[in-house]
Amino acid sequence: MARMDGPLTVLGLESSCDDTAAAVVRGRDVLSSVVWGQTELHSAFGGVVPEIAARAHAEKIDICVAEALAQAGLTLAQVDAIAVTAGPGLIGGVLSGVMCAKGLAAGSGKPLVGVNHLAGHALTPRLTDGLAYPYLMLLVSGGHCQFLIVRGPQDFTRLGGTIDDAPGEAFDKTARLLGLPQPGGPSVEAEARAGDPARFAFPRPLLDRPGCDMSFSGLKTALLRQRDALVAAQGGLHGQDRADLCAGFQAAVCDVLAEKTARALAVYLDEAPNAPAFAIAGGVAANGAIRAALTDLCAARRVDFVAPPLRLCTDNAAMIAYAGAELYAAGQRDGMDMTARPRWPLDSGAAPLLGSGKKGAKA
Ligand code: KG4
Ligand code: ZN
């Protein structure tokens, strides 16, 4: 029998992109969080191959679930609900998780809760830091880039987002153009440390336009042009050229994110929240320069800056289990007719985001 009092214990499943994951969360305690990454499976292709991803999710999701329950020291009978990412993402992968969760729910009689992957990221600071609503969130990864005012588990306002590439995607492409290893973020950041950000001119896209929308694909084009000019002039790239290009690119991403964050903060602070807080999630949140720029910005505005630990910032199932618990507590129950959704914007009132990205739909 599931306990009827105390914090909810929820099993979460995640398979919307290139990580197969399962986790058990009780209240704000992560009892287990198993993540099976697929990076090697896709590394030869320069992006996530949806068919390969879907097959690997279907093979691994049951194993992840069994492992997550074992690590938590629980059986399925001891959880209160089963939460699963029902979108947005690569549809084959989302389906693998949804079908597995439906099977588990049907077999165990446990309630099923479909979770929006972006809500999982957006609610993570509540899991890790117990952040109170409303807070401002910047989701910034290889697949996502958007500002959200988070007011509740089903109450989000999107203030803006990328109209083309996500920043992580831009870091990955930059690394590829310069022959640096993937994932590109850490390699570009390491190179940038020895570089001069002012040597090459990089644009600051969309800063001349009002609002919080962003664009990062032009930075990669600028980098390509600078690289080709150097190769034409000197027959190749020197180590210092590479470092300077990385530093220039990273400084441009930083400036754009900082300026757009300042604008999003102004909108959020207009609501006069009691304890204003700004949280980041996604793999790009690991970047030291970006983190420092955003930390300074928040300090200057007396806004609490929250950066959850990276393992919970990148794709994982603990965030899905936690979001599932909040949704379950709010009364959400899904049936066997629940669908997997390739696109599923958190804020249905906001203008749709363009592009689908190398890691699937952005919203
Ligand atoms: O959240 P995540 O693990 O996966 C999804 O995108 O779903 O984010 C991965 C992205 C990659 O594009 C990677 O290059 C980027 O995060 N990343 C970084 C850094 N570490 C990871 N970008 C910039 N600087 C970093 N230190
Ligand atoms: Zn994600």
Describe the structure concisely.
The protein is an alpha/beta fold and 363 residues long. It is 43% helix and 18% strand.
Summary tags:
2 domains; binds 5'-O-[(R)-(carboxyoxy)(hydroxy)phosphoryl]adenosine; globular; five-stranded mixed sheet; Nucleotidyltransferase, domain 5; binds zinc ion; single chain; 363 residues; 18% strand; alpha/beta
Topology:
Layout: E1 9-14, E2 19-26, E3 29-37, H1 39-42, H2 50-72, E4 81-87, H3 91-108, E5 112-116, H4 117-129, E6 135-140, E7 145-152, E8 155-161, H5 167-177, H6 184-192, H7 217-234, H8 239-269, E9 277-281, H9 288-300, E10 304-306, H10 310-313, H11 318-329
Parallel strand pairs: 1-4, 4-5, 6-9, 9-10
Antiparallel strand pairs: 1-2, 2-3, 6-7, 7-8
Helix pairs in contact: 2-3, 4-11, 5-6, 5-7, 5-8, 6-8, 7-8, 8-9
The structure holds 5'-O-[(R)-(carboxyoxy)(hydroxy)phosphoryl]adenosine and zinc ion.
What is the top-level CATH class of the largest domain? Alpha Beta
Helix content: 40-55%
Under the CATH scheme, the architecture of the largest domain is 2-Layer Sandwich
Q: Total helix count?
A: 11
CATH fold assignment of the largest domain: Nucleotidyltransferase, domain 5
Adjacency order of strands in the biggest sheet: 3-2-1-4-5
Residue windows where pLDDT falls under 50 for at least 5 positions: none
Task: Identify the bound ligands.
Answer: 5'-O-[(R)-(carboxyoxy)(hydroxy)phosphoryl]adenosine, zinc ion
H/E topology pattern: EEEHHEHEHEEEHHHHEHEHH
Structural class: alpha/beta
What would you give as the CATH superfamily of the largest domain?
Answer: ATPase, nucleotide binding domain
Form type: globular
β-sheet strand percentage: 15-25%
